[in-house]
Specification:
Elements (H helix, E strand, L loop, with lengths): L4 H8 L29 H11 L2 E2 H11 L8 H13 L3 E6 L2 E6 L1 H9 L5 H9 L1 H23 L2 H23 L4
Antiparallel strand pairs: 1-3, 2-3
Helix pairs in contact: 2-5, 3-4
InterPro entries: ArsR-like_HTH, Tscrpt_reg_PadR_N, WH-like_DNA-bd_sf, WH_DNA-bd_sf
Protein name: Transcription regulator PadR N-terminal domain-containing protein
């Protein structure tokens, strides 16, 4: 039997994606469970950012993540092809600057950015996500920093107590989901 054949035979009964894990998984699902953050309009976001000032591609990714409180961070795989498309359409121009490509709007691009309206595309994402979701990224970062500090500088007793707090927090979070609100 060829290497890996047994695994393929075991999975064959379940199709390409193995046994079902409930809704939200598989090729059309949302991966890690839970609801998926709404994707933003990368094209409109790029035009809106470049209406403010010229930027590099990576800088745009960072700006969008910052402006949405970490809710939306478009991937390089969506940003760079969009930049190329906008450049092909004559809406932006790119030039080399310090070893990076700096993009700016052309006159046609300014017209396209203005016609999109006064509300930036990332505003809809943060509005739809709600107040708590816009602050969770910051809170998680602060939590991780506290955990690192306790694990690095704390005594064995302090590290054990921190682990209890983490486990309790996990249980309480699942308890929130289990609470039916009555």
């Amino acid at each position: 039997m060829r290497r890996g054949s047994r695994h393929r035979e075991e999975r064959a009964a379940f199709g390409d994606w193995g046994p079902g894990f409930g809704s939200g998984f598989g090729p059309r699902g949302r991966g890690r469970g839970g609801r998926r953050t709404k994707r933003g309009n990368v094209r409109a976001a790029i035009l809106a950012l470049l209406a403010e000032r010229p930027m590099h591609g990576y800088e745009m990714i960072q700006e969008l993540e910052s402006r949405t409180g970490g809710i939306w961070r478009p991937s390089p795989g969506s940003v760079y092809p969009t930049l190329q498309l906008l450049e092909d359409e004559g809406l932006i121009s790119g030039r080399e600057s310090s070893g990076k490509r700096l993009f700016a709007l052309t006159d046609d691009g300014r017209g396209a950015a203005e016609s999109a309206g006064p509300t930036p595309p990332w505003a809809e994402i943060t509005e739809d996500a709600g107040e708590a979701a816009t602050h969770v990224h910051t809170a998680m970062g602060q939590l991780m920093m506290a955990i690192r500090q306790v694990m690095h500088a704390g005594s064995e007793d302090q590290r054990e107590r921190a682990l209890e707090v983490i486990n309790d927090a996990r249980r309480r979070l699942y308890g929130i989901l289990a609470d039916d609100g009555d």
